[in-house]
Design brief:
- The chain is built from eight helices and eleven strands.
- It is α+β, with helices and mostly antiparallel strands.
- The chain has two domains: 160 residues; 111 residues, Rieske [2Fe-2S] iron-sulphur domain (Rieske Iron-sulfur Protein).
- It has a four-stranded antiparallel beta sheet with strand order 2-3-4-9, with no helix packed on it. The protein has a four-stranded antiparallel beta sheet with strand order 5-6-7-8.
- The protein binds FE2/S2 (inorganic) cluster.
- The site of FE2/S2 (inorganic) cluster (FES) has 11 residues, from loops.
Length: 283
């Protein structure tokens, strides 16, 4: 299985399809606000993995009811609920997929294909059940559940092996020792400029506004992009840093994600000034 997954990650033949699909997704989901909602910006957590619980739960439950006598109606209701709730989950998934790395997009493409087959099977299952062909409906449901199971397995590979959708900054916190660390002399910090410094070999971004100084992890939560090379921008009156890789935008005051594709906040570290020296520590 590992060999198959590695070959899939390296399947460059999928890249041309990925490019075309990426253009379609970009054209279909244009408004920034909609993209942010689908990334989970308002939640501070990716939306897609939360939404997929609804169709999977409904479809698995319908399969259990299919094994029990006298439950046709309840099973049909669950198949309908799963099919309807799969649509927003799929839209959110494509929206996240469009800003993944090449290797992640290859796996994501097959993940989406498997789930698309699953959705088509369940739509067919629903149609069959509603027209009284419950045997066919059960059979199509089983095929759909198998496809969705395969898609879910690839989704797990994307998240847990390839790191799609996880916060790429936070693991770096484990490399910082407890206690306060000197970052820079306050007299050497310019106003309103991004500086990159290191704390125990972990890169941090330092931004000064008057006497207020923010220290945040430099590796972007989305895909480890270098925020130190980003640009300072203003969004709704909030001073933010925009990542140079895919445009995720974080409030420079508290690290809150303002625009995706990052779905989680950027980690900000506590600060203090002792004897004119800026210090920081783990939260
Ligand atoms: S790495 Fe993708 S937005 Fe920063």
């Amino acid at each position: 299985m590992r060999g198959i997954l590695t070959r899939l990650e390296q399947a460059t033949g999928l890249d041309r399809t990925s490019e075309r699909v990426q253009q379609v997704v970009a054209a279909a989901i244009r408004p920034q606000r909609l993209r942010d909602v689908l990334h989970g910006v308002g939640l501070g957590h990716p939306l897609h993995p939360a939404l997929v619980q609804l169709p999977i739960g409904a479809w698995v439950s319908s399969a259990v009811l299919d094994l029990m006598p006298g439950q046709r109606r309840a099973a049909t209701t669950l198949v309908a609920a799963g099919t309807a709730s799969a649509v927003p989950a799929i839209v959110a998934g494509w929206n996240d997929w469009a800003s993944l790395s090449r290797e992640q997009q290859r796996v994501g493409l097959v993940h989406a294909l498997a789930n698309g087959v699953g959705l088509a099977m369940y739509a067919g299952s629903l149609a069959a059940r509603l027209t009284g062909r419950h045997g066919l409906g059960r059979a199509l449901g089983l095929v759909g559940l198998t496809a969705v199971g395969g898609g879910g397995f690839l989704g797990g590979h994307l998240a847990y092996k390839q790191g799609a959708g996880v916060n790429h900054g936070v693991p770096e916190l484990r490399l910082i020792e407890d206690g306060w660390h000197a970052v820079a002399d306050m007299s050497a910090l310019p106003q309103h400029e991004l500086l990159t410094r290191r704390v125990d070999d972990v890169a941090v971004v330092v931004y000064r506004d008057g006497d207020d100084v923010t220290v945040m992890l430099e590796r972007c939560a989305h895909q480890s992009g270098p925020l130190g090379a980003g640009e300072v921008t203003t969004v709704n009156g909030r001073t933010c840093v925009r990542c140079p890789w895919h445009g995720s935008t974080f409030d420079l005051d508290n690290g809150e994600v303002v625009h995706g594709p990052a779905g989680t906040d950027q980690q900000v570290l506590p600060t203090r000034v002792i004897g004119g020296v800026l210090q920081t520590r783990l939260p």
